[in-house]
Amino acid sequence: MNLAGARWVAVAGVAALTIIVVVLAMLALQRSRGETAAQPNPVPSFTLGVTTPTPTPTLVAPSPAPAASRADERFLTTGSAVWWRGSAGGCGGIEPLIERSDDGGATWTDVTPRYLGIGQIMTMSAFTAVDAEIVAAVGPACEVQALRTYTDGEFWEPYPEVLAASRYLDAADPSVVVFPGEPVPAPCPAPTGLRTSGDTAALICDGFAWVGTGAEWTALAPTGVAALTFVGSDVLLAHADAACDGTAVSRVAAGNPTGFQPLGCAAGTDPAAPTAVTTLNGDVLLWSGEVLVTLEGLV
Fold first, then answer.
1. Residue 124 Cα to chain centre, angstroms
2. How far is C-alpha 8 from the chain's CA centre?
3. Fewest beta carbons less than 10 Å away: which of 6, 19, 70, 242?
């Protein structure tokens, strides 16, 4: 081989080697780029000073206590020598209760006539110094009877003529007030606390007192009424009042249903508890829960 041929072979070899190096470099570069794309660096995060507050649970006010049922209704009545009290009960449900006291309410004796199968009491009143009468549902059929006792509550006897003259809430349908002659619709579906004076009746509907003669009813001013009774033709109310830390007692004069006269406060009693109220010789007697309170000289 001459000198020119040798140079040509050398140049060709160098060129070939250069091409191989370039190809290998390109392959290495592509591989490096692929690995970088497959494993990206983490994206930095930044706090901009705005945070999402933790949600605060919504506080729901507790539901008000349910109104006392008709079975919880209370009665309190006084003769000059013996006091009587009771709870209504309900036919086929809560048993009614009748108690008497001959020591001014210091002690009480259970005189409920269970032997008669008494199921519910609708009215209770003392008609002499020592004797009482009730209108009650009796027996398996809850037959309405007027019962009187002349034996300190040991025995009770039915008196049909007394029932015929009685006024009471119907045992099966409390929306009906039974008057002598014909029934009268009450001002609400489920009244309680019916009391009467002559031809006038008063009752409670959802914390409001109503007074009526015949089928005409008028709402009285105070609200939150727990119990009522008559003082002559006026209505005496036991009710809730923000100014009384207990059960307030007010008087609504006949003919002025929108006005009332505050009389006193039975402190420490609960106007939401089953309650009965009556009067004796100018004093107000209030039976609330387990407490019997005397408010002297209010009427």
1. 25
2. 114
3. 242
> Is 70 in a helix, a strand, or coil?
helix
Flag whether the pTM goes above 0.90.
no
**187-299 placed in CATH 2.130.10.150:** yes
In the block, tokens 């020598």 appear at 81
Number of neighbouring beta carbons within 10 Å of residue 299 = 18
Cα→Cα distances 71→133, 157, 209, Å: 19, 23, 19
Tens-place pLDDT, residues 200-215: 999 999 999 999 988 8
For the record, the structure tokens of 266 come out as 């039975």
What is the DSSP secondary structure assignment for residue 116, as one 8-state letter?
A: G
pLDDT tens digits for range 6-55: 343 333 443 444 444 333 444 443 444 444 444 444 433 333 333 333 33
- DSSP notation for 227-276: EEEEETTEEEEEE--TT-SEEEEEEE-TT-TT--EEEEEEET--TTS-EE
